[in-house]
From TrEMBL:
<keyword id="KW-0808">Transferase</keyword>
<keyword id="KW-0963">Cytoplasm</keyword>
<dbReference type="InterPro" id="IPR010240">
    <property type="entry name" value="Cys_deSase_IscS"/>
</dbReference>
<comment type="function">
    <text>Master enzyme that delivers sulfur to a number of partners involved in Fe-S cluster assembly, tRNA modification or cofactor biosynthesis. Catalyzes the removal of elemental sulfur atoms from cysteine to produce alanine. Functions as a sulfur delivery protein for Fe-S cluster synthesis onto IscU, an Fe-S scaffold assembly protein, as well as other S acceptor proteins.</text>
</comment>
<dbReference type="GO" id="GO:0030170">
    <property type="term" value="F:pyridoxal phosphate binding"/>
</dbReference>
<feature type="binding site" description="via persulfide group">
    <location>
        <position position="327"/>
    </location>
    <ligand>
        <name>[2Fe-2S] cluster</name>
    </ligand>
</feature>
<dbReference type="GO" id="GO:0031071">
    <property type="term" value="F:cysteine desulfurase activity"/>
</dbReference>
<dbReference type="InterPro" id="IPR015424">
    <property type="entry name" value="PyrdxlP-dep_Trfase"/>
</dbReference>
<dbReference type="InterPro" id="IPR016454">
    <property type="entry name" value="Cysteine_dSase"/>
</dbReference>
<keyword id="KW-0411">Iron-sulfur</keyword>
<dbReference type="GO" id="GO:0044571">
    <property type="term" value="P:[2Fe-2S] cluster assembly"/>
</dbReference>
<feature type="binding site">
    <location>
        <begin position="73"/>
        <end position="74"/>
    </location>
    <ligand>
        <name>pyridoxal 5'-phosphate</name>
    </ligand>
</feature>
<dbReference type="GO" id="GO:1990221">
    <property type="term" value="C:L-cysteine desulfurase complex"/>
</dbReference>
<feature type="binding site">
    <location>
        <position position="153"/>
    </location>
    <ligand>
        <name>pyridoxal 5'-phosphate</name>
    </ligand>
</feature>
<dbReference type="GO" id="GO:0006520">
    <property type="term" value="P:amino acid metabolic process"/>
</dbReference>
<comment type="similarity">
    <text>Belongs to the class-V pyridoxal-phosphate-dependent aminotransferase family. NifS/IscS subfamily.</text>
</comment>
<keyword id="KW-0001">2Fe-2S</keyword>
Length: 395
């Protein structure tokens, strides 16, 4: 078998497209003026930032002055949650989220609990979907914010965002969604979906790392997270990451202009890969919603397998994948997302996330379907639990 390099971890990060890099390059070496400067050289940089802001706004059906550039998705999440919490403390101290959020949301909520806020962490069903009735019941007269992710970074489940937004809007509660995994993969309209705040990160849709944005609907009462100068209309201090912002604008323009075609191609490969895995590898479970999920996401659990060993062997064959969130892959604890959907520890530990994207071809699917079953069988052959299971007739 000829070894290949196969990148199937697009949910962790993506490469920067050549067109994006090309758009960025002049702002490193030629047009490097500080956007806060009043001379022509600086004003050109300011114009480039505003052009990028317009592109982000167009992609979300927002207004340009509702878009604020950040240092990434985690910063945007922190700003949205802390900013709303502290600015609206006079109205209440209750926040609602879910048990399967990214740690940028969960750890922020845990921090706020230490500051006297109360947080409700909603359960999800076996597919990772919230129950809208549970959400309604959790709301109190002290609730000031609902923060629920658009699509889960591990299992790919897409939440009923428009319905959540409607519930929040009718009750006068701000609604924030971490859309870091969704932008570029799902059509998003912040007006139709009643979204008040939305976080995104460029490196998830073929843009540069270290730059993101927060959509803040006009009229939302929010405190600043970073204090200093008057950048971003006095809401986010710090000299702007000019090349990064330009790159984000170009990347979101590309990602949303051909989203339907992109999704058809990715979903077709994903379905063929998933069907092949389920056919070739017994005792395998699909995690996440079977239909309402991101087009490139596969998350499966193999019984009698330890995920870390699986990743190391896949890497030996040139296959890049994940056992869950890239931000917590160094942890030996089972995924909080997989635990929340009801998987026992031993099954959660045997999970694999394959996330397909623009780098993948049909030959990659063939290669993974050739390699993965062999690796799983090799690891199972080393497991005394699997041996006992088979001796007992596979029950």
């Amino acid at each position: 078998m000829e070894k290949r390099f196969v990148y199937m971890d697009h949910a962790a990060t993506t490469y920067t497209k050549p067109e994006v890099l090309e758009a960025m390059m002049p702002y490193f070496t030629e047009q490097f003026g500080n956007a806060s400067s009043i001379y022509t050289f600086g004003r050109r940089s300011k114009a480039a930032i505003e052009e990028a802001r317009e592109k982000v706004a167009k992609a979300l059906n927002a207004l340009p002055d509702e878009i604020y550039f950040t240092g990434g998705g985690s910063e945007a999440d922190n700003w949205a949650i802390k900013g709303v919490a502290f600015a609206n403390r006079d109205k209440g101290n209750h926040i609602i989220t879910t048990k399967i959020e990214h740690h940028a949301v969960l750890h922020t909520c845990e921090y706020l609990e230490k500051q006297g806020f109360e947080v409700t962490y909603l359960d999800v069903d076996e597919y990772g979907m919230i129950n809208l009735e549970d959400l309604k019941k959790a709301i109190t007269d002290k609730t000031i914010l609902i923060t629920i992710m658009f699509a889960n970074n591990e299992i790919g489940t897409i939440q009923p965002i428009a319905e959540i937004g409607k519930i929040a809007r009718e009750r006068g509660i701000y609604f924030h969604t971490d859309a870091v995994q969704a932008v570029g993969n799902v059509n998003i309209d912040v007006k139709e979906m009643n979204i008040d705040l939305l976080s995104l990160a460029a490196h998830k849709f073929y843009g540069p790392k270290g730059v993101g944005a927060l959509y803040i609907r006009k009229g939302v009462k929010i405190d600043n997270l970073i204090h200093g100068g008057g950048q971003e209309r006095k809401r986010r201090a710090g000299t702007e990451n000019l090349p990064g912002i330009v790159g984000l604008g170009k990347a979101i323009e590309l990602a949303t202009s051909n989203i339907e075609e992109h999704n058809r191609k990715i979903k077709s490969m994903r379905d063929r890969l998933l069907n092949g895995i389920m056919e070739k590898i017994p005792y395998t479970k699909l995690n996440g919603h079977p239909e309402k999920r991101l087009p490139g996401n596969i998350n499966v659990s193999f019984q009698f397998i330890e995920g870390e060993s699986l990743l190391l062997l896949l890497d030996h064959y040139g296959i890049c994948a994940s056992t869950g969130s890239a931000c917590s892959s160094g942890s030996l604890d089972p995924s909080h997302v997989l635990m929340a959907i009801g998987l026992p520890h031993e099954i959660a530990h045997g999970s694999l996330r394959l996330s397909l994207g623009d780098l993948n071809k049909e030959e990659d699917v063939d290669y993974v379907l050739e390699v993965l079953p062999q690796i799983v069988q090799r690891l199972r052959d080393m497991s005394p639990l699997y041996e006992s299971f088979i001796k007992e007739g596979g029950k």
